Amino acid sequence: MKGYFLIFAAVSLIFATSSMAAMKGMDHGSSADKGMDHGNSSDDGSFTHTAMAGDVHTEFKVMDLASMNMKDPDGKTHHVMATFTRNGEKISKVVGKMKLVSPSKKEQLADLKDFGGGIFAANFTIDEPGKWGIVCLFKDEKGTQTVKFWYPHMAM
Questions:
Q1: What is the pLDDT of residues 91-127, one digit of tens each?
Q2: What pairing do the DSSP bridges indicate for beta strands 143-153 and 37-43?
Q3: What's the pTM?
């Protein structure tokens, strides 16, 4: 167990200290993304992105806290929720971090919080229009995976 945390700490440090280098290669038109991206959708003010990370199906949902009639004690504006499944079964034990990079290159980093039932999330401040880079590094009992995608935030 101690080795698990040491490995995750080292990977997290690398993840946290990396800058925009982590965001390179996120062009959805690149051939490296073909077959891995399940698509994006936008409805009722939320944004959903699904993708494969190794053998894990991931789903991310970006939601405006105000539209959910919720407030963050630190003034964050958006909730980014993630679920992870393998072979149709939700993965309930995951540790990870999520990074958002604004169009002006400002970065925010947060730990994934376990909300139970295989739902993980973090809150962020999304305060400028444009393409926001989202990177999620997560680890379960079978290994570490990374998912990268763009969130197109429009001015309110």
A1: 999 999 999 999 999 999 999 999 999 999 999 999 9
A2: unpaired
A3: 0.74
